[in-house]
Design a protein that fits this description.
By secondary structure, the chain is of the alpha+beta class. It has helices at 24-32, 60-80, 103-112, 114-117, 133-143, 147-154, 170-175, 190-202, 236-258, 268-281, 298-308, 310-316, 319-332, 335-346, 349-360; strands spanning 4-13, 41-42, 49-53, 84-86, 123-129, 159-160, 163-164, 216-218, 224-231, 287-288, 295-296. It has a single domain (4-360), classed as Creatine Kinase, Chain A, domain 2 (2-Layer Sandwich), CATH 3.30.590. Strands 1, 2, 3, 4, 5, 8 and 9 form a seven-stranded antiparallel β-sheet that branches. A hairpin with a 6-residue loop joins strand 10 (287-288) and strand 11.
Length: 362
């Protein structure tokens, strides 16, 4: 059974006004006093962000329990520091983000200017274990067409600087401003993957290998494929779905590789269009089908993803739960729809944020 780990980025907000708060240093100092949390929480690019990482898990129930625990611990440390945490992929309210201290972040601010300043976006990254770099690259090559569906399922960022963007995942559009971000064409071998990464670093446009922001990449630190397309999810169950589907995609791709099945030959241009369509539509409008690259209802596209990974999910015992969670998202809407419905009901972005603080713990 492949292990799975999840990294989530949470927004620090004022519990009364919903405005982002630059208190990550204080929250991390609180977490550092707790022996159980010393290796769980980390700082991020902006002082209004807090990141946590789960330990690798084989069972999705165990993973869910750890995500819930980490969210609760983050909320506790935040409350002690005078703020709250919200699983929102962008701030609905206007904000002037402050870049965290450190040589790396200072270099990024100088190199990329306003693009760095505007990167107060919060994602969910899933790590799935692999046996070798060869297997990892084979997986990365084969999962590309399906990643836009994960983006649509996780969409949780409709608002930006106090306005409705008309997107379901505006975070993903902001993230694309990094020069190394986005989908990739097939690498075909681990040697070619590593050569491409080395060539990109050698340009000096990015600082190091850590700034390889491919939609799916080989982790620098762990023997994993890291899938990076998802918004941070409003609810823990959606985050678990992202991990479940990610593992299903990795296992299916690895089996296809061993069986000699070639990657689907979509160009990066088409993959970028599918990514844009997912960001715009979420689960509310048509998406591009990963195989045909033609517009189809979201129910059809999600069903195609579930069919694609069905054998892998059945073998891991995750198929029925994945089907149920997908059906619930398609029926009730994900984070983007929840935020818009809250806005429609209350007329206040402040109330959207404060209510999402509660959703983060549910």
């Amino acid at each position: 059974m492949r292990t799975v780990g999840v990294e989530e980025e949470l927004l620090l907000v004022d519990p009364e006004t919903g405005e982002p708060q630059a208190l990550s240093a204080a929250v991390l100092a609180r977490a550092a006093q707790d022996d159980a949390d010393q290796d769980v929480f980390e700082k991020e690019l902006h002082n209004q962000m807090l990141e946590f990482a789960t330990h690798p898990q084989s069972g999705m129930e165990d993973l869910r329990a750890e995500i819930v625990r980490c969210r609760k611990e983050a909320a506790r440390h935040a409350e002690q520091s005078g703020c709250a945490v919200a699983a929102l992929a962008t701030s609905p309210l206007p904000v002037s983000p402050s870049v965290a201290a450190g040589r790396r972040y200072h270099w990024m601010a100088e190199q990329y200017g306003i693009a760095t300043q505007e990167q107060l976006v919060l994602g969910c990254h899933v790590h799935v274990s692999v046996e070798s770099d060869d297997e990892a690259v084979a997986v990365v090559d084969r999962i590309q067409p399906w990643l836009s569906v994960l983006s649509a399922l996780s969409a949780n960022s409709p608002f930006w600087q106090g306005k409705d963007t008309l997107y379901s995942s505006y975070r993903s559009r902001v993230w694309q401003r990094w020069p190394s971000a986005g989908p990739t064409e097939p690498f075909r071998s681990a040697e070619r993957y590593h050569r491409r990464v080395a060539d990109m670093v050698a340009t000096g446009v990015i600082l190091d290998e850590g700034m390889i922001y491919f939609d799916a990449r080989l982790s620098r630190r762990y023997p994993t494929v890291e899938i990076r397309v998802s918004d941070v999810c409003l609810h823990a169950d959606t985050a678990v779905l992202m991990a479940t589907l990610a593992r299903g995609l990795v296992e299916t791709a690895a089996r296809d590789w061993r069986a000699g099945v070639e990657p689907v030959g979509h160009s990066v241009s088409l993959l970028r269009l599918a990514s844009w369509r997912a960001a715009r539509s979420g689960l509310s409008e048509e998406l591009l089908h990963p195989v045909t690259m033609r517009r189809m209802p979201p129910e059809t596209v999600v069903r195609a993803l579930l069919c694609h990974v069905e054998d892998a999910l059945a073998d891991s015992g995750d198929l029925e739960r994945a089907r149920e969670t997908c059906a619930a998202l398609l029926h009730g809407g994900g984070g983007a729809r929840v935020q818009r419905e809250l806005m429609e009901r209350t007329g206040s972005l402040r109330d959207v944020v404060t209510e999402c603080v509660r959703h983060t713990q549910s």
